[in-house]
Amino acid sequence: MIETVKGIKHTDSGQFFLLAGPCAIEGERMALEIAEEILRVCDKLKIPYVFKGSYRKANRSRIDSFAGIGDEKALKILRKVHETFGVPTVTDIHSAPEAGMAAEYVDILQIPAFLCRQTDIVVAAARTGKVVNIKKGQFVAPESMIYAINKVRDSGNDKVMITDRGTMFGYRDLIVDYRGIPDMQQFGVPVVLDITHSLQQPNQSSGVTGGRPQLIETIARAGVAVGVDGFFLETHPDPANAKSDGANMLKLDLLEPMLTRLAALRSVVRSF
User: Fold this and answer.
1) Tens of pLDDT along 67-124?
2) Considering the domain 2-267, what is its CATH architecture?
3) Fewest beta carbons less than 10 Å away: which of 24, 39, 144, 258?
4) Is 183 in contact with 143 (CB distance < 8 Å)?
5) Mapping DSSP to helix (H, G, I), strand (E, B) and coil, where does residue 210 land?
6) Close Cβ partners of 231 (under 8 Å, ≥ 6 residues apart)
7) Is 38 helix (H, G, I), strand (E, B) or coil?
8) How far apart are CA 147 and CA 156, in angstroms?
9) Cα dihedral sign, 51-56-58-63
């Protein structure tokens, strides 16, 4: 299905595909610089690539947390990334009316994990005809995601994929259950593993989400081993000063060595 996304390259390489970019669109220059570097690495490794960026962050712990630079401004930057580099783009939506608006600018509409059961949002995204990426809720069993998939299919759209981002384990931790990857692949859709949000540590007393980015490659290697179709990750040149989710993002200069190792591991796994 990923090969149907307009502008995507290297779909015959046998590699996993990648949805990657900053957590939030902070500005045009920042978005273009990140996109250019990720594209360079993905072209080198023949990895199909989609640029990710949130035009607005609706799910914030505190009311004073950064939420965005303005919807239209950020969406226009996503379009600029596509026009500049020819790469497809993905962004998340937070209500049914946003589906049509965002679909004018991006190629893939993403349903956030907390909203994966919201029928009106899922259906609205499906009816745009765009690819729909539904993040598995931290509270949802993998086998239950068939119902979210069917909401898209029953709306006349078969372009759907699922992203696992861990399951809540206590109040401030997430655990990836790798049994869920093959379970969800049985539904006939690509299954993506979010290797940065899976390492979040939400609900901190400070109101700022924590994370364990030193384990990003560990999570990813296990994903390759079980045959995940794609990866989702957030990256930034300076995570410590990122305006959103800096605590669990991958530093941009670590991306190439990590993807190089993961691509090599993928080739080994595919040989079995």
Assistant:
1) 679 999 999 999 999 999 999 999 999 999 999 999 999 999 999 999 999 999 999 9
2) Alpha-Beta Barrel (3.20)
3) 144
4) yes
5) strand
6) 16, 17, 18, 19, 20, 192, 193, 194, 195, 220, 223, 262
7) helix
8) 15
9) positive
Kindly provide the residue ranges of all beta strands, DSSP E only, lying in 82-170, ordered along the sequence: 89-92, 108-111, 131-135, 160-164, 167-168
CA atoms within 13 Å, Cβ hemisphere of 213: 20
DSSP summary character for residue 143 = G
Read off the tokens for 23.
Answer: 């957590």
Residue with tokens 């949805």: 19
- Decide if pLDDT at 208 tops 80: no
- Taking the C-alpha atoms of residue 271 and residue 185, their distance in angstroms, rounded to an integer, is 20
> CA-CA distance, 123 to 150, in Å (whole number)?
10
| pTM across the whole model | 0.93
Where does residue 81 fall: left (phi above 0), alpha (psi -120 to 50 degrees), or beta otherwise?
alpha
Encoding tokens for residue 26? 């902070």
Rounded Cα distance between 261 and 142, Å, is 28
C-alpha distances in Å from residue 155, one per residue of 124, 159, 176, 204: 9, 11, 30, 38
Q: Which two tokens stand for residue 264?
A: 């090599």
Domain boundaries, the chain: 2-267
- Residue pair 209/248 in contact by the 8 Å Cβ criterion: yes
